[in-house]
Design a protein that fits this description.
Length: 209
C-alpha cells in the first residue's frame, strides 16, 4: 500500500510469509514476482526464516534491501524482519509477553520493533514500527497494543518524526486492539491515533485480509 509521508509517498508491504511451508518453490516464484511488481520501499515480514545458512528475506528481495531481523526467533529460525531500500538505523525492540499465555517457544511473537528509515527527500527520515501481537484469542492483544504505544512515543520524544506502523495484527478491523491504534477506542486509559493507510487511499473498499 502507499502511505503519504510529509510531501512524499512511501510504498509499504507487510506479508506473512508462512516460512518455507507448503509449495515453497512455487510460492517463492510468485512472491518474487509480486515484490517486483509492487516495488515497495519498506517491507515488514512475519514468519520469515533466518538461519546460519539461509536468509529468506535476502532470497526473496535480493541485495537492494537492507534487512534488520528481529530478536526472539523460534528454534527453526522463524521470526520477523524489517527490510528497506533506504538505509536503516538501529533496530530497537520491546518484549510484549504481557501474560504467561504468550507462547515463550515463539519468542518473535509478542514483540514490537522499530528502526529509523533514512528516506531521501521529499519523504525524509521516518520511524518504521513493526508490531507483532499474539495470535491467540484473548485480551493479550489489547495489553500488547497498550504496551507498544508508549514504546513508540518514547522513541519519538519531541522530534515530530513521521511514523509508519505495520505488522501482522492478528485481529479484525472491529477488534479493540485495532480500534485502539486507529484512535477509535481507548484502552486502560490510553489513547493514540494512527491513520489507516488502506482506508485513506481506498475509501469504502475492504482490504484483502
Amino acid at each position: 500500500m502507499e502511505q503519504v509521508v510529509g510531501s512524499g509517498v512511501v510504498r509499504v508491504a507487510t506479508p506473512n510469509l508462512w516460512g518455507r511451508s507448503g509449495a515453497w518453490d512455487e510460492r517463492k516464484a510468485i512472491l518474487i514476482d509480486g515484490f517486483r511488481q509492487l516495488q515497495p520501499n519498506i517491507v515488514a515480514l512475519q514468519e520469515v526464516v533466518k538461519t546460519d545458512g539461509y536468509d529468506q528475506v535476502a532470497d526473496l528481495l535480493g541485495p537492494e534491501f537492507r534487512v534488520a531481523h528481529h530478536g526472539g526467533r523460534s528454534e527453526d529460525g522463524t521470526g520477523a524482519a524489517i527490510a528497506s531500500r533506504w538505509p536503516l538505523g538501529e533496530l530497537l525492540e520491546a518484549d510484549l509477553r504481557v501474560t504467561p499465555r504468550v507462547d515463550p517457544a515463539n519468542g518473535w511473537i509478542g514483540r514490537v520493533a522499530a528502526a529509523e528509515v533514512l528516506a531521501p527527500d521529499p519523504v525524509g527520515p521516518l520511524l518504521f514500527v513493526h508490531h507483532k501481537p499474539s495470535g491467540q484469542r484473548g485480551f493479550e492483544r489489547e495489553l500488547q497494543a497498550v504496551a507498544a504505544a508508549p514504546f513508540v512515543e518514547e522513541l519519538l520524544g519531541e522530534s515530530g518524526t513521521h511514523v509508519v506502523l505495520a505488522g501482522d495484527f492478528d485481529a479484525t478491523p472491529d477488534s479493540a486492539s485495532v480500534r485502539f491504534w486507529q484512535g477509535r477506542q481507548s484502552l486502560s486509559g490510553a489513547s493514540v491515533c494512527y491513520r489507516d493507510a488502506w482506508e485513506s487511499t481506498h475509501l469504502g473498499e475492504s482490504g484483502y485480509t
